[in-house]
Inverse folding.
């Protein structure tokens, strides 16, 4: 059998109700139940194998790089939970069919419910930690949708938000724990992790793991002090409460405790935290439940209390306690689901859930009353019902405790008090609702519910009785299988019998029943006592907390994002300063061991020019034309530096880019004010910016110095060794560009093309003011295209094109190549624009440059794709040598086609930018709005 | 030599950063240009300084590291495209918003 189907069928089933809700309520419910029912059958089929001790697994690779596999397994514990999830889930589907009113969108409800079911199945079946977490989060999200199902109610929205916040935050903590576990063990595979208990317990991060892990489990299972979300989740429709807060959602937390019990438990840290939190939750929940007037509120706090009981059992230092915990998981799921359903029926048929109004319902709905009373008795732990058995086991285990040293006698005492409180609130549930006089001001006269609404309750109550009377027959094997999965070793002897003779636990039970009855009998005094304290509403406190966080976040956000680009740049620079300066502080000596080159006079002069040019650019930046001339000096020196330090290709590129840049700036300056107001910032800001700029400059300069004076370890030996033999060229820089790292180059010319096209779109329809004179008021020169310039540039054009062709062709072996040749061609053409004007050029070269860009990109891409024809990877190059008469021996390489693509793209992009901007200065400019 | 090179890179970076922080678009684009010079020189420096060692096989004894050169070559061209884009954006902002300040009129 394929395990994948068990969670997959319900997942597909989420679509069923959405498609079928038009066919009526019964049909929708039946169709919705179909796929989960098949899943349940699959699980049931697997029972013999699991009882025989096998664990079924299924696995497929998902993202192996991070250790994430799609992996499921079915052992005893997963089997128990799958049965609960699917079994009670099906009963809830039937129940909801009658509970929901005509106004509720049944398709949506069922769809959420089945999604939640899938998530729960995923959690319990996962065999991979990361996948488990994925489904864990899915339960949080789908439960949010379910709790907020009546989204028109404020309570529902707030309750859902609270549940999502708490369980979501816990989920993050859990993720931290799971990742730490995975890293400590070296695998995210659950089987491997479960076999590595000693590694985990001995690791240094064990306390961190425990805290994060328990945060995840406790928030989900509503343990103190995170319990407050659960009562507010009662704003959900009752079928949701019956499902989420009996068998599933809140049980996910205790499932986690059970699942990781073999590897994380067995240390003092675990026993102290888990048992104390469990005990506190048990008492607090039980005490608060007594005072709730809302039927569902009582049940909610009782759920908290019982979850505390299960947690306490996992925290007690004995194997039998863990078995009892598993047993109580079953028992609580069964009786609590039936009680929630009964509460829903009462609410549905009488219109109220307030126990001050609901009295004497025995007369109106005796059948439902009987069912509810049996379930409530089980909750109280009355003999012959299932709740009695697991509570008895708890009492027995508390008697053998040493966790608290000489104070350990407190544990059985407090457990008995918890038991007494449970008896008291169960008595209240029975007596206040079904007896205690007549109903008061009920919205409608109560009556029995529709026949089939009662069926789920009947089934569950029969189970209560069955487990309570013949426990070994009813759940013995299941409990054995699940408990051995929890303990991960053979089980100790234990007996599930109802009668163990007169002993300590029985005495504690008797005390609890007597104490509970006394408490309930004296409830007036208790209520009066409790009435002295102001009601603590977690919702209000929580909302306050949320609002406080939102306000603080808004303050920070306003400070960071004040819609000032200047501020963003400032923050960015400060941040980068921090990350670059921090490592430098750790560096002891800026100077490395590499010997420095000697300095000569020419270098000093060039450096002096560069520094003066830089400073002048900054100082004269308000006189824009002057600044432009200064920055062009800097650019020129940079080009010379490249040439001097053995990078002829870079020098050529820088030189041609420099020309294009300056032309571009000049064109832009035509439209922009030619001067900036001298005082563009406050003196304070100038000082601030100067300090930051100096700091950044100092850090980068030091970094550069530290790098330059350290020996070089480069991967370039490979490129130099293989350039000729592998790439067929002696200019290693060019071979790297078009061959070794050709894919990078393809990306880079794509960026160039995108920038060009972006500029083209920005220029389209731009409404610019065309000045008639310069800033001094002088009119532009009348002779726009001087004859001398026209003549010279026209005669230079063929020469320039020839040079660019030469540079292109020799590029593979000597300095040059597509980038440089493209820039030279582009500048030669721009020269013609400048000399003759746009109109003159338009007649001779009416060519859409974006097509040139596209052609270049396509050419480069196809030259890469071509290698696929020869079964080679993308962009593998081919080259060979030929000889022709007169020309002699020459080389042909497919890389040249690629370089040709680069060449066209560069020409296209440069001309697209410059020619289009230039066109704006003339009468040829496109008018806004197209033509 | 290395000391002078590093000082030059530092000063260009400082000048670029100062201009980038100004309130007028033209100064910011000038600053970006200065910064890209500095960044290119910085990246180039990761291959260390070598004289008379162009990475042309058979032309010299010791070759300069060709890898940073190849990276910087494309960086120069893309730097040009970026400068152009920023400049045109500044023009567009002036056309649409009516001023040439980074944050509009309120400095």
């Amino acid at each position: 059998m394929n395990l994948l189907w068990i969670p997959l069928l319900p997942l597909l089933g989420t679509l069923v109700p959405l498609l079928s809700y038009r066919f009526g309520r019964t049909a929708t419910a039946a169709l919705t139940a179909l796929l989960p029912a098949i899943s349940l059958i699959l699980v049931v089929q697997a029972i013999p194998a699991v009882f025989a001790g096998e664990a079924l697994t299924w696995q497929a690779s998902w993202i192996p790089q991070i250790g994430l596999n799609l992996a499921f397994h079915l052992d005893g514990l997963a089997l128990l939970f799958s049965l609960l999830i699917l079994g009670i889930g099906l009963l809830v589907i039937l129940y909801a069919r009658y509970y929901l009113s005509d106004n509720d969108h049944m398709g949506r409800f069922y769809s959420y419910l089945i999604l939640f079911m899938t998530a729960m199945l995923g959690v319990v079946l996962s065999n991979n930690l990361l996948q488990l977490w994925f489904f864990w989060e899915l339960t949080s999200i789908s439960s949010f949708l379910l709790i907020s199902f009546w989204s028109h109610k404020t309570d529902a929205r707030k309750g859902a938000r609270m549940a999502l916040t708490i369980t979501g935050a816990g989920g993050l903590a859990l993720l931290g724990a799971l990742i730490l576990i995975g890293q400590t063990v070296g695998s995210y595979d659950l089987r491997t992790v479960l076999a590595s208990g000693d590694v985990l317990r001995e690791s240094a991060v064990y306390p961190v793991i425990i805290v994060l892990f328990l945060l995840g489990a406790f928030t989900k299972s509503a343990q103190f002090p995170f319990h407050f979300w659960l009562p507010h989740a009662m704003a959900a429709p009752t079928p949701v409460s019956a499902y989420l807060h009996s068998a599933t959602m809140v049980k996910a937390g205790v499932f986690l405790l059970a699942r990781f019990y073999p590897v994380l438990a067995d240390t003092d840290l675990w026993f102290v935290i888990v048992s104390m939190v469990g005990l506190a939750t048990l008492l607090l929940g039980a005490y608060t439940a007594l005072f709730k007037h809302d039927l569902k509120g009582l049940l909610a706090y009782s759920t908290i209390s019982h979850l505390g009981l299960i947690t306490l059992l996992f925290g007690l230092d004995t194997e039998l306690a863990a078995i009892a915990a598993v047993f109580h998981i079953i028992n609580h799921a069964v009786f609590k689901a039936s009680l929630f359903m009964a509460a829903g029926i009462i609410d549905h048929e009488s219109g109220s859930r307030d126990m001050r109004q609901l009295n004497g319902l025995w007369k109106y709905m005796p059948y439902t009353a009987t069912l509810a009373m049996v379930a409530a008795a089980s909750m109280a732990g009355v003999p012959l019902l299932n709740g009695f058995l697991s509570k008895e086991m708890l009492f027995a285990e508390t008697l053998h405790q040493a966790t608290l040293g000489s104070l350990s006698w407190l544990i059985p005492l407090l457990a008995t008090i918890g038991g007494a409180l449970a008896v008291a609130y169960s008595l209240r549930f029975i007596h206040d609702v079904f007896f205690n006089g007549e109903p008061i001001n009920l919205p409608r006269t109560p009556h029995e519910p529709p026949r089939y609404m009662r069926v789920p309750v009947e089934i569950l109550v029969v189970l209560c009785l069955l487990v309570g009377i013949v426990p070994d027959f009813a759940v013995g094997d299941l409990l054995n299988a699940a408990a051995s999965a929890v303990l991960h070793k053979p089980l100790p002897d234990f007996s599930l019998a109802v009668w163990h003779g007169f002993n300590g636990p029985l005495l504690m039970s008797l005390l609890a029943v007597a104490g509970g009855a006394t408490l309930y009998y004296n409830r007036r005094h208790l209520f009066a006592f409790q009435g002295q304290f102001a009601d603590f509403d977690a919702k209000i406190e929580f909302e306050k907390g949320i609002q406080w966080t939102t306000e603080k976040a808004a303050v920070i956000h306003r400070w960071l994002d004040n819609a000032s680009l200047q501020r963003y740049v400032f923050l960015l620079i400060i941040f980068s300063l921090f990350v670059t300066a921090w490592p430098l502080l750790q560096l002891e000596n800026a100077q490395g061991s590499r010997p420095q080159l000697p300095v000569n006079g020419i270098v000093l002069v060039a450096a002096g020019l560069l520094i003066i040019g830089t400073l002048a650019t900054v100082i004269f930046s308000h006189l824009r034309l002057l600044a432009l001339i200064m920055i062009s000096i800097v650019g020129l020196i940079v080009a010379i530096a490249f040439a001097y330090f053995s990078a002829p290709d870079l020098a050529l590129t820088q030189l041609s880019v420099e020309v294009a840049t300056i032309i571009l700036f000049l064109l832009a300056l035509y439209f922009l004010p030619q001067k900036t107001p001298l005082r563009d910032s406050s003196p304070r800001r100038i000082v601030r910016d100067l300090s930051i700029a100096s700091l950044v400059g100092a850090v980068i300069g030091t970094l550069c110095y530290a790098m330059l004076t350290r020996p070089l370890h480069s991967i370039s030996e490979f490129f130099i060794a293989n350039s000729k033999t592998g790439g067929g060229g002696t200019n290693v820089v060019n071979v790297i560009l078009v061959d070794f790292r050709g894919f990078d180059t393809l990306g880079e010319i794509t960026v160039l093309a995108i920038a060009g096209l972006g500029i083209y779109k920005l220029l389209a329809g731009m409404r610019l003011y065309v000045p008639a004179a310069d800033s001094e008021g002088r009119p532009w020169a009348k002779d726009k295209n001087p004859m001398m310039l026209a003549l010279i540039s026209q005669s230079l054009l063929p020469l320039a094109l020839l040079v660019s062709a030469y540079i292109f062709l020799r590029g593979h072996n000597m300095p040059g190549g597509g980038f440089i040749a493209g820039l030279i061609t582009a500048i030669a053409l721009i020269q013609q624009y400048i000399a003759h004007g746009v109109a003159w050029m338009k007649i001779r070269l009416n060519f859409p440059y974006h097509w040139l860009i596209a052609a270049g990109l396509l050419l480069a891409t196809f030259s890469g794709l071509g290698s696929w024809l020869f079964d080679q990877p993308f962009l593998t190059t081919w080259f060979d040598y030929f000889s022709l008469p007169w020309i002699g021996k020459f080389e042909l390489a497919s890389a040249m086609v690629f370089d040709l693509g680069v060449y066209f793209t560069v020409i296209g992009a440069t001309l697209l930018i410059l020619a289009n901007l230039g066109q704006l200065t003339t009468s040829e400019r496109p008018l806004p709005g197209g033509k | 030599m290395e000391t002078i090179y590093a000082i030059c890179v530092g000063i260009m970076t400082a000048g670029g950063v100062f201009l980038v922080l100004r309130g007028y678009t033209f100064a910011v684009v000038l600053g970006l240009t200065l910064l890209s010079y500095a960044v290119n020189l910085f990246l180039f420096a990761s291959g260390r300084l070598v004289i008379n060692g162009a990475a042309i096989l058979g032309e010299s004894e010791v070759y300069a590291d060709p890898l940073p050169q190849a990276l910087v070559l494309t960086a120069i061209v893309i730097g040009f495209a970026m400068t152009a884009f920023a400049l045109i954006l500044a023009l567009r902002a002036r056309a649409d918003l009516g001023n040439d300040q980074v944050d509009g009129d309120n400095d």
In short: The longest helix of chain A spans residues 154-185. Chain A touches chain B through 111 residues (CB under 8 Å).
